[in-house]
Fold this protein.
Amino acid sequence: MLHNFTVHDVLGSSAAALALTLFVFVPGYVTGWLTNAFHFRREGLVRRIVLSTPLGVAAVPVLVFFLGHWPLALWLFFGAVWSTFTGLAIREWLSSVAAMGPFRSPEVETEADGFHPAQSERLPRARAVKIGMAAVLGWALVAILSVSDLQLGHRLYFSVTAHDYSVRTAMTAAAARGIPPANPFFAARPPVRLRYHYFWMLVCALVTRLCGIEPRLALLGGTVWGGIALLSLIPIGLRYLAGVREGLRRTTLIGFALLAVTGLDLLPVLYISHFRAPVYADMEWWNVQITSWADVLLWTPHHVLALVACLVGFLALRQAAVSRRQRAMSVALAAVAFASACGLSTLVTVSFAVFAVLWLAVAACRGWWDELPLFLAAGTLAFLLALPALRLFLGPGASESPYHGFFGIAVREFPLAMRMLARHLGWRQHIWIANLLLLPVNYLFELGFFLLAAVLRLKANLAGKIPVTREETAAWTMVAASFLIGSFVRSNTLASNDIGWRCFLQAQFVFLLWGGVLLDRRRTDPAVMTPRVWLAARIMLLVGVLGTAYQVVVLRVYPVDYFFARGPDWSAAEGRPGERIFALRSVYEQLASILPPDAIIQYNPAETGAYISHVLYSGHPAAVGLVRCGAVFGGQLERCAPRAAAVDGLFDPAPGSIPVPDRVCRDYGISVLVAVDTDPVWKQPESWVWTRAPLIANPYVRAFRCGK
């Protein structure tokens, strides 16, 4: 019977998503109860459930990093958490039985909190809960089907997002072997510490440790929780950042729907495809992207989780009660949340830190002195908690960028406009001036409806229709920080401008809240927008929805045969990429069943695209896993050079030479060599590929024991 990898991935990632409930939702519920953040204890069950996932995202990652150094302490901690949750669940059940209903009735909403129970909601709670559950299940289905491999007979195709998941799968496997994890692309003694914001990989690796689910599927299951955390953050943001006091349920559901809306990217992509035959594998690649919610959740959910942690910390401080004990709890929770965010995404956290500095300056200028002590205390404590991880993240490593330093000053680029100027006007000098002048057009294409919502919000603020409260000021400060960084700063550690992509997440979230409020107000008061503006908004919404749908579909069904025929991956050379990927994964599945997790498997790292196929399925460290040993993720090139030369000689020997792999394998601890039919050594009849008995073999791949 043919083993179906698609079914395997769907079932495995679904099981991983369910298992992550123990490491995200359950600890979050206990955290909420212990800290009473956001008045957790007096809320109804539904709101406590909504709060639990963001609180878990804020608290768990940094605790796993510290406790993971001592596995016994780590599991004792989670045992205590699960026991506490069980006790709270029994207590809630007994209370429900006593009250003759599944929920507290009514939920506590007081005039002091700014809520008016008699008029705050027109949408029945039961209906809102059903729609919310449908949104969660719908997202889970989209996420799992989008990132799982697609098998058609003996052909296998991975999603475009595998470009990133391949690297993070290896990191998750490294985290399952030990904390702090070692660089899986530079297996050495002593180990080379991993240089990456890997906290989410630590959490996903717990599923591998507890349940035995393979690291790749644990990571895929984690993608589901990125969306759940973002969905849960929307009602919290509406209530505590956008100041929504009436119609919270209805506005929340509108916010859920707006996650399916992106900017106007579809228009330039269609324009470019009209003149350029290849289709972009990701719609965002046409520009320096402000990534759609669907795209960032499918590619890099850890960035969204960092945003969730930052906002939980910030809003917890802003909701600190008068009592000294509750203020101390809020400071502690915020510090832990900010420290977790540092390890979830340094890029998002740096952007949020810029906002925090601006916010403190604004608070000082406005005389809001009660804001300063709490934020300074939380920030100081967060820095101390995050310092051990930051020292690892900023350790030795190579740079892939032609620029120097961590960040640099540069005007945000607009490549399409620059090409058009060069083609039609012959303008090739002082490009930065054109980029600066065209920033509004650039942002219009990237943000679409959400930029319109921001403009209308500003207009309402200036007209006094929406008061400029502290919450409103905080939201605008977040927007200002994002635009300041995104317009004039670029990251220099990678060739891509990652900070320019990720710094906008906080502004995007604020725009999402404002967009939901705008559409809800438009529903009750058509005068909020003129007919022409409403027509423009509907067109932008339609283009945004179609853009997201196009993006999700293309990421999954992108014509990989066509892509690999022009790409650097090993499976492209003689066609049949689907069959080659199927053959490679089949070999790695068999190797995983007979090798210990820390066994070193070595493949040919010289081909720049090899990692997409090999690293995605290996699950084991490599002596040279990427070009230059993946030193960008930790390590020194001086240590890499001799091993890279030795390994390269095994797969691409000099003319007339016959490599003998055993010495190289012993020197670098390699247990298994994996050769594919496009490696130069494959074509030498007298080489080790053909003179030794393979451990596993098929027409495209041969694996051999090596060394000891």
About this structure: DSSP finds 29 helices and eight strands in the chain. The first helix runs from residue 5 to 19. Strands lie at 150-152, 155-157, 407-409, 489-491, 600-602, 670-676, 696-697, 701-705. Residues 166 and 616 are 4 Å apart (CA to CA).
